[in-house]
Amino acid sequence: FESRLAWQKDPGRSRSKPLMTECMGTYYRGVLDASREGRPLAYTSVLFYPELVNSMGLTTFPIDQYCIQMLASGRGQEYIEPGVSFGFAREACSPHIATVGMAAAGIFPRPDLQFCTAQQPCDSASMLAEVLNLIYRCPSFWLSMPHRYDEETIEYFKEELWDLVAFVEKHTGLTFNEEKLREMLDNSRTCNELFEQTHELRKLVPTPMRGRESFASMGPRMTSEGKPIVVEFLKAQYEEIKARVDKGQGAVKEERHRMVI
């Protein structure tokens, strides 16, 4: 990310791309620094929302998302077979197999805590959390996120989050900071609004945004949601897409088909 940032800042390039790159580079540098400086580090699942624990000063690391990025860039395939040899099912998601191989090889900084979510995008992600716990033997917390949205489930989830706060305080000595959390949640709300506005524009014909561009927002939101730089990135992305719409520019030439998965 640091080497990519240099050429992305050339005049004439979009503003959102260097902001995204800067956000991710700063984030990963923070993960390394936390490990080297002895500050608490927690592994998370890809569906774990980081604002609450980040507001307490805890550094989070969605370990399998990192592995997904490595495999997508053509790196890390050599860890798939070691992952299978460790005992992870070959039929599972390839990034999860490789994550096990990397963890077993000692590639990652060692976590102090692990946060898992009961709801995952695929079954092997839930199993990955169990296997990582066998490797690292650190305190783990399973966060159950309700599927419904009503008064009862909100109260249930609130209790889950208070239990999470108590868990972090017990194992790290960090304390809950309501003012900092409110600040991060205000930023997250702005992020959601910008994200929705941008993706509403994607519905237009011709579409002003490629799928690759839209997927780029996943990394900053997963790792750094609630931080000002994510707001800045999403605002720049929205303004760039809106400018294309105003000019009638499509993301591809002569768009004829649109794939929905």
List the helices and strands and how they pair.
Layout: H1 2-8, H2 16-37, E1 41-44, H3 51-55, E2 59-62, H4 63-72, H5 80-86, H6 94-104, E3 113-117, H7 123-136, E4 140-143, H8 151-172, H9 178-201, H10 211-215, H11 218-224, H12 228-247
Parallel strand pairs: 1-2, 1-3, 3-4
Helix pairs in contact: 1-2, 2-11, 2-12, 4-6, 5-6, 6-7, 9-12
Arithmetic mean pLDDT: 91
Number of strands: 4
Query: For the terminal residues, how far apart are their CA atoms?
Result: 29 Å
Strand content: 5-15%
Shape: globular
Overall SS class: alpha/beta
Secondary-structure element string = HHEHEHHHEHEHHHHH
The number of helical segments is 12
Helical residues, percent: 55-70%
| Regions with little confidence, pLDDT below 50 for 5+ residues | none
Q: What is the spatial order of strands in the main beta sheet?
A: 2-1-3-4
Identify the notable features of this structure and list them briefly.
261 residues; alpha/beta; 12 helices; globular
Could you walk me through the main structural features you see in this protein, from its secondary elements to its overall organization?
This protein is of the alpha/beta class and 261 residues long. The chain contains 12 helices and 4 strands. The chain has a 4-stranded parallel sheet, with helices on both faces. Helix 3 links the parallel strand 1 and strand 2. Helix 2 runs antiparallel to helix 12, helix 4 crosses helix 6 and helix 5 crosses helix 6. The protein starts with a helix and ends in a 14-residue tail after the last helix. The model has no long low-confidence stretch (mean pLDDT 91).
